[in-house]
């Protein structure tokens, strides 16, 4: 894992094990968040973009497999490293089939844990670069044709997705109505049509309403620009 994408979510209910993991990972240069319950894992896992999520199978409220399945259903693509004392073949197979990307049996060597995290992080970065466009907390998956904000799926119609994708691909640039009509609708500019304003309004409501900050900005008299603050 390189650059700023070294944040890991550790889901572990045992205070001693959790403390050791957080200390060792922090010393190794990772930014670490901790969740002690399944509910905390669901909340934190959907709120941030993690390079890897490590998760215990046996949690006090919701079991780890259910947590993984729910986060996957919510569109979370971060790789999962299952860390569990349940080490039988059937246990490992069930965990991997439920959405886990790797499985480490307790007790384990921390050196091996680091090696597995690095491998999962590299795989995650490669996939993300190839298939997912990101602006701030917005993620646009080009394979599934789905968009997510803070991990929550945005319900978009096909043309709305095309419009958002074009804005994202032109992050930070001002895009005119004529450009949108040509590239999204494959039509020449018609000054009498309001189709662009209607669709941008729909997409803006779906993407920006009830969010911490807006991404889609109107540039008066010119067009639109999608950008994150900062």
TrEMBL record:
Domain OmpR/PhoB-type as annotated: residue spans: 130-228
CDD domains linked: trans_reg_C
PROSITE patterns: OMPR_PHOB, RESPONSE_REGULATORY
Residue ranges the UniProt entry marks as DNA-binding: 130-228
Swiss-Prot/TrEMBL keywords: DNA-binding, Phosphoprotein, Transcription, Transcription regulation, Two-component regulatory system
Keyword Repressor belongs to the record: no
Species: Bradyrhizobium sacchari
GO biological process, one term: regulation of DNA-templated transcription
Protein name per its UniProtKB record: Two-component system OmpR family response regulator
Record-linked Pfam families: Response_reg, Trans_reg_C
């Amino acid at each position: 894992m390189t650059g700023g994408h070294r944040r890991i979510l550790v889901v572990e209910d045992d205070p001693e094990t959790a403390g050791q993991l957080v200390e060792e990972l922090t010393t190794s240069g990772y930014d670490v968040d901790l969740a002690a319950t399944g509910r905390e894992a669901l909340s934190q896992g959907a709120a941030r973009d993690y390079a890897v999520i490590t998760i215990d199978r046996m949690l006090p409220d919701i079991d780890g497999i259910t947590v993984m399945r729910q986060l996957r259903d919510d569109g979370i693509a971060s790789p999962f490293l299952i860390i569990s004392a349940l080490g039988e073949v059937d246990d490992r197979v069930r965990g991997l089939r439920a959405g886990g990307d790797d499985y480490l049996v307790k007790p384990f060597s921390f050196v091996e844990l680091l090696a597995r995290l690095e491998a999962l992080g590299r795989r995650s970065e490669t996939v993300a670069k190839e298939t997912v466009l990101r602006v701030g907390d917005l993620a646009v998956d080009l394979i599934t044709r789905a968009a997510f904000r803070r991990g929550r799926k945005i319900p978009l119609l096909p043309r709305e997705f095309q419009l958002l994708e074009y804005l994202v691909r032109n992050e930070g640039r001002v895009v005119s109505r004529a450009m949108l009509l040509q590239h999204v609708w494959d039509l020449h500019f018609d000054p009498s049509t309001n189709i662009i304003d209607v669709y941008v309004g729909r997409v803006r409501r779906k993407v920006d309403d009830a969010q911490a900050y807006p991404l889609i900005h109107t540039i008066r008299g010119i067009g639109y620009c999608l950008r994150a603050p900062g």
